[in-house]
Amino acid sequence: xxxxxxxxxxxxxIVDIAVNSGDFDTLVAAVVGLALAxxxxxxxxxxxxxxxxxxxxxxxxxxxxxxxxxxxxxxxxGLLLVDxxxxxxxxxxxxxxxxxxxGVEDDVDFIVGTFSKSLGAIGGYCVSNHPQLExxxxxxxxxxxxxxxxxxxxxSTRAALRLMQQRPExxxxxxxxxxxxxxxxxxxxxxxxxxVSPVVAVTIKDRNQAIAWWQELLQRGAYVNxxxxxxxxxxxxxxxxxxxxxxxxxxxxxxxxAFAALQxxxxxxxx
Length: 271
Hints:
Blueprint: E1 2-7, E2 13-19, H1 24-38, E3 45-51, H2 58-63, H3 65-74, E4 81-83, H4 98-102, E5 110-114, E6 124-127, H5 133-139, H6 141-144, H7 151-166, H8 168-187, E7 199-204, H9 207-219, E8 225-227, E9 237-242, H10 249-260
Parallel strand pairs: 2-3, 4-5
Antiparallel strand pairs: 1-2, 5-6, 7-9, 8-9
């Protein structure tokens, strides 16, 4: 866990807490300690909770969302914001994201997300039933100084939203593909995350090995994203495979075969 600090234009203290996947207990301990330290001796502050690379720790966060709300209430109240950038269209019975999947939509004050992932467009959103949403329009520089989206972007985003609602089988197909790739890479001995998600990441200790494997996978017809420090959440590198509902079983198997051919002993990836 890493803790940093600073301030914003309004004079509020800002605390950044970076927590690795599965480290929820450490997160709670850090937040409680910081709150106790500042509750009686510092100006108002806000907390930015960072971490959870992919979906590895989402179930833990989902379960404790009401507890986070209770925590804020104990210190004079607060507003809870959830970023659904990686979960919109993927989680929940209707694809609304992690808050729907956890059954805590009524406990969340603001929801933000992006059009650039599951919707395949450009831009993003912030939604809320609170009047404070109006303040967001005037306080966020990235909103004030950004040009309005083009009509074609809005039209394509709305079309994607309609497909998301009308074709739930796409979401089922997405998870079938993700599970197939996850199981295949895990069976080969590669180090993958504790839980399956539409982004299946292989962790590699050696940076040069990660670069070499990324290039070799590309030569074998499998394009994956290479993530290295400081972009990766730890000192390790990642080969991130983004799965979609459009992939066929044959294509998923070709990706698995490409990983299997990286070297004679594939289990070396997990050492």
